[in-house]
Amino acid sequence: MDRLRQPLFRWLILIIVLVIVALVAWLLLRPKGGLSETFTASDGTISFRYPAGWVTGEDWFPIYLASSPDMVRANAPTPDQLAMGILRPTDGIGITLDSFRGDGDPVGILARVIVSAGEANAMVIFGEIDQITINGRSTARAYSSDSQFDALTLVMSMENGEFMVIAAQAALGDLAQFEPTIIAVAETVTYTP
Known about the structure:
Blueprint: H1 2-29, E1 37-40, E2 46-50, E3 55-57, E4 63-66, E5 82-87, H2 106-120, E6 125-134, E7 137-145, E8 149-157, E9 163-171, H3 175-188, E10 190-191
């Protein structure tokens, strides 16, 4: 009887190991942070994943992502909502990132973005710039706020010495709940010049 149990026991162990391996593979390959939708720019240069139910487009900001349609053109953030804008290296709104190619320093680029933003709106207060890594890319990060919103600005190093800016804003006190999603979206960005 023991001779019969040994092969069965080995098969049972093998099946359990295969189930565990399949579960781990599924967990690693599924979209990060519930990012089940994919956006690709009309010119094909950028794509990223984002949560279901959120809206994206290119008709208002070079590329925008918002947690609801109400946030797309809102004059001020509404509670529990997020709006994000993404600037490719060749986009520009008061600042053309294309002119910074080859600079090699996301902190320097973010400092220039902050100066540009400060010239446009003296009411925005920026915090310190720190450097993080997002999906292997050197990234500068700064928080800012004014009387209506909190914001997070990221400048990510991209291929060929180029940079991409991701700016996100939420109502005062609401940004922290969205930061994991902002970072998760940034981790999925692909850029093809």
